[in-house]
Amino acid sequence: MKTLCLYYSRTGTTRDAVQELAHWLDADVAILSDRVTRSYMSACLAQLTGRLPQLKVRPRVDFASYDRIVIGLPIWAESPCVIGKVFLAKYARYLPKELYILTTQQGTRDYGKKILKLNKYLKVPMSGYLSVREGEITEAVIKRFAAEIMADR
Ligand SMILES: Cc1cc2nc3c(=O)[nH]c(=O)nc-3n(C[C@H](O)[C@H](O)[C@H](O)COP(=O)(O)O)c2cc1C
User: Does the model's pTM come out above 0.85?
Assistant: First the structure.
């Protein structure tokens, strides 16, 4: 099962969680960016306006060569960050059908319903998600999510 873990991360929290997950899944890792070094305010603005410059994935990957993808995104303004939404809107049709979302957040609110709204970009509903708070990202939590993903095979 060839897996790609793709993430956007402004301050490193999502990156660290996704890299840990990739370790347990023996997955390749790629970085999603919008070519902008975002301050908190510019992240807020992007989230509110939804207007973004071109997206970039590095290294360049052939999505079709993967069986499964996990996309890591921070929560911005009560919803998965707009960079991920724009990515899914543009590229969902090229992605493996087995798709998981991993979000990181600061607060205690449950964003499950907001995460499931990403299904509107997908032909097949996402296979699962993990939503985790910054201070609660532990090896055990990530390892459990990796085990759930692998059990879905
Ligand atoms: C513009 C902006 C909006 C945010 N809104 C929320 C929010 O609504 N709820 C929340 O729990 N955390 C919110 N956060 C905190 C991030 O989700 C959290 O710090 C996340 O782990 C950051 O991930 P990163 O380091 O990969 O960028 C927000 C952060 C930013 C920059």
Answer: yes
